[in-house]
Amino acid sequence: MIAAFGVPLLWLASVVVELGRANSTAVVLFLVLSFMLALGARLAFRPQEYLEVDLESRTFAVIRKGKRAAAGALDALGPLEVRMRTRVVGSEGKRRTIIEYVVRAAVHSNVDLYVMKTPGKARQKMEGIGRAWRLPCKSLGGAVRPPDALDTPLHERLRGDSAARKAVPLSPDWGLRIEPAPMGYAMASTHRSWVPLQMGLLFLVLGLVVLGGSFHYGVWDEANNGDPFAQVFAALVSVVMLCMVGTAAAGARNTFFPGTVHIDDRGVTYRGRRMRFKHIEEVTAGAPIEIVGDGRILKLAETFCPPAATAAVVHELQRLIVEVASSHES
Q1: Is residue 281 pLDDT above 70, yes or no?
Q2: CA–CA separation, 131 vs 128, rounded Å?
C-alpha cells in the first residue's frame, strides 16, 4: 500500500508544485492517496508481537514491544496449526461476521503467524514455515503431519485409508451429482445461491454512481481539455468501473453456473484450470472449497454447494481423486 499510493502521491505533489496551483480534483486525490498511504504505514509499522527464530540452535524468543518476553525450544512450537476464527464487526443492527483462518503455534498461540481469508492459503503459509523450521503441521480438520511428509500428494497419503475411500451419499436437495466421465468422474453442481448476484449488482450500482458523479462534476470534460488532475481521476474512475463490472459478472456466473469438477487421468479440472495429481495435497473444507498444493490453489465457487454439504463434498472429492489417481498409476 505504501508503494501503490506513495508514488502517485509524490507525483501529484510534484505536478502541483510545477503548476503552482491545485484545483478541487487535486485536493480530493491528495486526500484519498494520503489516507491510503497513512493506512499502509499503520499496518506496516504498528507495534507487534513476533517470534525470533534461531535455526542453528533450534530456539525461539517472543519479542513483545521490542523486548524479549519469553524463550524456548523451537520444537515446542510444533505442531503448527490452521484454525478458523470468527469476528463480529459493525454497530448494532449492521453487524456482520468475518471468518479468518489463522496459523498458530502450539505454544504462544496468542501470536498469529499468518491470518488468511481461506484455509488453503493459510495451509500454504503454514507449510512454508513448517518446512523452514522443520516442524510438524496440522491443517484445518486434518491430521498432524511430520515435516518430511508435508509434500506427500493426497492420493498417496490416503491410499491405504479405508475410511477415506468409502463413499458418502449426496443429498438430492444439495443440487450435486457425480457422473461417470471418460477416464474418471465429473461432479456437477446445479445449486443456486442469489447472494453473489446481489452483491455483484450492488457493486455495479456503486460503480455507476461514481461514474455519474464524475460526469456531473465535469471531470471528463476537464480530462479532455488536458487537465492532468482530471486525467488521473478519470483513470481511477475507469479502473473502479472495470472492477465493478468484473465483480458483477463473476457474481452472475457463480449464481447461474457453479461449474463442474472433472477428475480424470490428467488430474482435476475446474473452469478450465487443471491440477495434476502429484501437485494435489489436500482438499480444504471452507467457503469456498479449495483443492490445494504448494504452488497452486484450485478454488471452487462459493455457490458450488450449500454449507451443509461442504464436508460431504470435500470427502467425495478426496475419494474420487484417490480412486482415479491410484487406478491411473496402476
Answers
A1: yes
A2: 5
